[in-house]
């Protein structure tokens, strides 16, 4: 279990480093989104090669894992998952004030005494722990993390991360549990339900941002 979690943390860290590097050089969010999709396609190609070279038992286990599940976590895995998620959430809470300062721009945040590099490091660690741990043991459940922050911002009509962070946490958990219940009712993978729910939200957000910039 610790090997699986370690591999997930390493993979999440590599992806975040690439995105952070691109985001530092390119400020257009749409270009970053397109590059992210291209990078995702490249990672998928590597995964397909590994699938092609895998044995039948390993391939079957991998396919089941990609469908996502909230009910397959064992007690030894929970002993790793729970502390990792708690630490990730504590780090996220620690970044609330830096995130609020960054809403006014990096220059303003620096004048207020914010250590940009340290704050980004905390965000990096928090995201790596949360995304990597949950993905390792529950599978790559997509679109919840991508869609729910935008939904929370619409629901609470608030930019303050003291409201957005717990709001996103609770609404994301509620929606994921709802998707899991629906998947159990119709005997479908939870990843399919979250994708069907999240894709329209992501498309709406992209079109909304595009119309605001025109």
TrEMBL record:
Gene Ontology molecular function terms on file: transmembrane transporter activity
Membrane topology reported for the UniProt record: Multi-pass membrane protein
Pfam families, per the entry: FecCD
GO biological process: siderophore-iron import into cell
Swiss-Prot/TrEMBL keywords: Cell membrane, Membrane, Transmembrane, Transmembrane helix, Transport
Coiled coil: none
Family annotation (InterPro entries): ABC_BtuC-like, ABC_transptr_permease_BtuC
Top-level division of the source organism's lineage: Bacteria
Protein name: Iron chelate uptake ABC transporter, FeCT family, permease protein
Keyword field contains Transmembrane helix: yes
Similarity comment: family membership: Belongs to the binding-protein-dependent transport system permease family. FecCD subfamily.
Location within or outside the cell: Cell membrane
One Gene Ontology CC term in the entry: plasma membrane
Annotated transmembrane regions: 6-23, 30-53, 73-94, 122-143, 188-207
């Amino acid at each position: 279990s610790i090997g699986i979690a370690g591999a997930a943390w390493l993979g999440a860290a590599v992806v975040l480093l690439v995105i952070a590097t691109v985001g530092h050089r390119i400020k257009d969010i749409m270009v970053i989104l397109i590059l992210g999709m291209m990078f995702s396609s490249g990672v998928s190609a590597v995964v397909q090669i590994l699938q092609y070279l895998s044995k039948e038992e390993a391939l079957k286990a991998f396919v089941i894992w990609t469908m996502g599940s909230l009910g397959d976590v064992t007690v030894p895995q929970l002993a790793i998952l729970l502390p990792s998620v708690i630490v990730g959430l504590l780090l996220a809470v620690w970044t609330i004030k830096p995130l609020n300062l960054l809403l006014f721009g990096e220059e303003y945040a620096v004048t207020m005494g914010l250590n940009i590099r340290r704050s980004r490091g905390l965000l990096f660690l928090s995201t790596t722990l949360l995304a990597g741990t949950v993905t390792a043991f529950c599978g790559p459940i997509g679109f919840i993390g991508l869609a729910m922050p935008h939904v929370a911002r619409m629901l609470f009509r608030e930019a303050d991360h003291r409201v957005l962070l717990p709001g996103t946490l609770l609404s994301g958990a509620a929606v994921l549990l709802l998707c899991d219940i629906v998947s159990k009712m119709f005997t479908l993978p939870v990843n399919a339900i979250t994708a069907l729910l999240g894709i329209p939200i992501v498309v709406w957000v992209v079109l909304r941002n595009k119309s605001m910039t025109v």
